[in-house]
Amino acid sequence: MIENKSKYSQLIKAEAKRLGFLSCGISKAEFLEEEAPRLEAWLNKNRHGEMRYMENHFDKRLDPTLLVEGSKSVVSLLLNYYPSELQNENSYKISKYAYGTDYHFVIKDKLKSLLQVIKDEIGDVHGRAFVDSAPVLDKAWAAKSGLGWIGKHSNLLTQQVGSFYFIAELIIDLDLDYDTPVTDHCGTCTACIDACPTEAITEPYVVDGSKCISYFTIELKDNIPTEFKGQFDDWMFGCDVCQDVCPWNRFSKPHNEPLFNPHPELLEMTKKDWEEITEDTFRKVFKNSAVKRTKFSGLERNIRFLKS
Question: Could you tell me the residue ranges of all domains in the chain?
């Protein structure tokens, strides 16, 4: 049986690589003991702002066996999204993860293919695929399975490739070989804390989500508080500052996923173009993009806030 565990784990990792994932790590599906008090404290301090969904399914967030009955393993996967080209310098900025097709669709398809191969090759395996769409603590699982460590900006970091990647999981009812966590390599560096435009990284490893530019430009449905005027560094959807300044992202390499390539107009648009954007252009440039989450009206609100 031990031989099988090793064989199955290798098969899953080889298939993940074939599907284009950056890396794959596996951990035992069990209660996340260390995360429980951290998550509770974070919620109690209201660091999730109006993201009330963060309060739901507290137990399921910490225990995958409550989410997927009979689950034994969490297979964590990373998919690179670092672009080969960036937006025009005289432009309002969009987080790099949203340049191309919405990652939910791209990764869900890859995860379905991976699960199908597991079933075809191994047998009657049950499980579910997760892409940032259910109460799963993606970063905690990725760290537990040795894919990186959680940096001071609270993103997963890897020595070889930095942090510009998506995290996804398969939670399955199959015993596998489990990987071990890696050590933290942030050292005394405080680049992300020093650079955060809204001081959302309140202390090393703790981000006040309700002060983050990504929260204001994507999650917040009301008007952006006026006390943050002039602090957004021209970000109109998301924010990459803490990742851009991280020394480990010197090692980021462009992705090779054609679906993540941006609409050509996106890279060329200037501030003036964004200020005059019509709903038709919005629909064309962001046809299958994650930017649609904020809707045309939300993007307009963000641009108005930056302009004023």
Answer: 2-84+96-172, 191-251+262-307
